[in-house]
Design a protein that fits this description.
Layout lengths: L1 E5 L2 H6 L4 H6 L5 E11 L4 H4 L2 E6 L2 E6 L15 E6 L14 E17 L2 E13 L4 E11 L1 H12 L11 H10 L20 H24 L6 H19 L6 H38 L4 H25 L2 H15 L12 H19 L8 H21 L6 H33 L5 H29 L7
Antiparallel strand pairs: 1-8, 2-3, 2-6, 3-4, 4-5, 6-7, 7-8
Helix pairs in contact: 4-10, 6-7, 6-9, 6-10, 7-8, 8-9, 8-10, 8-13, 11-12, 12-13, 13-14
Length: 479
């Protein structure tokens, strides 16, 4: 396993003095001065393609710094080497004209050989300064390489003493950000995309989880900004749900303790995102139409002010969590899961297409069974139907590339419409819960909002039935 980590300059200075590192060292450290210079065009042609051209000790390296959507690439991996030459003109990949120096790193690389749990681990510290024409700043990275169990044990041990985090960008991308004052493109966004073939079941699991870890890392600072809009919180909540779904879908691997800890941490993050998202929806979608229809209701305005305070409190709690050691540890756990080379269980899982078809078939049957008598379902029954629709949709999105064609896209589209309408109906229950938090004895203003949501829910119910009928007419795309 290979992991790249970010640490503070102060932590880098005391790393070698940690008692645990002293006890694990098996030889002398090896250090050398390092200078890396990155080149690109003035309009950043290479960076736009996720590439970087570096020069170090007379060697020119063309590297990829942003993965393609279907490229399995764990989050805590700095870059991938495309090719190297002593002269940039001899690289087989054509380079753009008019290259210029963009930024540089000056510092020191120190390598330590450690023994963790009887296994050798190489720990390399890169500590120095990133420099651009108009700015410079300290920069420290830690690279760990060795057997997966040993690397994970070491990084968790270090996390007890140092402020470690998974980098959201490579070192070259950080240098570009310093030079241009811009934020590079995120490594991953949206839903994971599997390649149509070539992956084992466990490799697919690692790819999906690694993609979602990158998405969470990208969204965390946006969702932690209390003044930001509702989108980052919503997207982060969806990413957490997708990650939890992936953990429930794929077969267990050897270290079930690691999986259990990852699942628990994702559940905790979901519990922080839930209130923030619910109050976002209430204050931006549920309450405003009622206020607009009844602008002279002072009670409604007072209730809205109380709701705004609850919303700010929920966002503040989420912000505190996303900037905490707990969230950093969650990101490290997910990165370790995505980078691990798992020892397969005694019974090897079936080929990915066969495995995917089995998962989809089981989740589809559960959904169809619950919805057989849709007209008889009460509110809790519709809530259960929504959850099963959501679980099937996440699985269908994961495995859709394995079954290309219009049937797949139409199935997912109709399932999405069903889920969205069930979500609108569920807003009534959510609104009632939030209003009870504001006032244990709902008053006139609360009654106005509950009446509005109940009426909207009643209007949505026939649309749910129509969406359900259209969905049922779609044949499973995996058969």
């Amino acid at each position: 396993m290979e992991l790249a980590l970010v640490l503070t300059t102060a932590d880098a200075a005391r790393l070698h003095r940690l008692p645990a590192i002293k006890a694990a060292r098996t030889g002398r450290s090896r250090g050398q001065a390092v200078r890396v210079v990155w080149h690109d065009t003035l309009d950043r042609t290479l960076a736009a393609d996720g590439l970087a051209l570096s020069e170090q000790r007379g060697a020119w390296r063309l590297e990829r710094h942003r993965p393609e959507p279907t490229d399995p690439w764990p989050p805590a991996t700095d870059h991938r080497l495309i090719e190297e030459a002593s002269d940039p003109n001899t690289l087989s990949t054509p380079l753009p004209d008019a290259l210029t120096t963009v930024a540089a790193f000056d510092g020191r690389r120190t390598a330590f050989t450690l023994t963790i749990g009887g296994e050798p681990v190489t720990m390399t510290l890169l500590d120095g300064v990133l420099r651009a024409v108009a700015a410079d700043r300290p920069c420290s990275r830690l690279f760990l390489e060795g057997a997966g169990v040993a690397v994970r044990e070491l990084v968790l041990l270090l996390a007890d003493h140092l402020t470690l985090s998974i980098p959201v960008q490579s070192l070259a991308s950080e240098a570009l950000r310093l030079a241009d004052g811009t934020t590079p493109e995120p490594r991953r966004i949206g839903a994971p995309v599997l390649p149509p073939e070539g992956l084992s079941t466990h490799a697919a699991f690692a790819h999906i989880l690694g993609h979602l870890a990158d998405v969470l890392l990208h969204l965390a600072p946006l969702a932690a900004d209390i003044e930001s809009g509702t989108v980052p919180v919503h997207q982060m909540r969806v990413a957490v749900r997708r990650a939890r779904s992936a953990l429930s879908i794929f077969p267990p691997v050897e270290d079930t303790v690691v999986l259990s800890r990852g699942a628990d941490a994702l559940r905790d993050l979901g519990h922080m995102l839930g209130p923030a998202r619910d109050w976002d929806v209430f204050m931006t979608e549920t309450a405003p139409p009622v206020e607009a229809a009844l602008p002279d209701q002072a009670n409604l305005r007072a209730l809205s002010r109380a709701g705004a305070r609850r919303r700010r409190a929920a966002r503040a709690a989420l912000s505190a969590y996303l900037t905490s050691a707990e969230f950093r540890l969650l990101s490290i756990e997910l990165a370790c899961l995505a980078a691990a080379e798992w020892t397969l269980p005694d019974t090897e899982p079936p080929p990915l297409n066969e495995f995917a078809a089995g998962v989809l078939r089981a989740r589809w049957k559960k959904l169809v069974h619950v919805g057989k008598s849709l007209e008889d379902l009460d509110n809790p029954g519709l809530h259960g139907l929504r959850l099963k629709a959501k679980r099937l949709r996440y699985a269908a999105e994961f495995f859709a590339p394995l079954f290309p064609g219009k049937a797949t896209s139409r199935f997912i589209r109709r399932l999405s419409v069903l889920q969205e309408r069930l979500g609108l109906f569920n807003d009534t229950t959510v609104a009632e819960t939030l209003l009870r938090e504001l006032n244990a004895s709902p008053g006139y203003a609360s009654g106005l909002i509950l009446g509005f949501t109940a009426a909207r829910g009643a209007g949505v119910r026939p649309k749910i039935a129509a969406a359900w009928a259209r969905f049922r007419r779609r044949e499973p795309f995996w058969e």
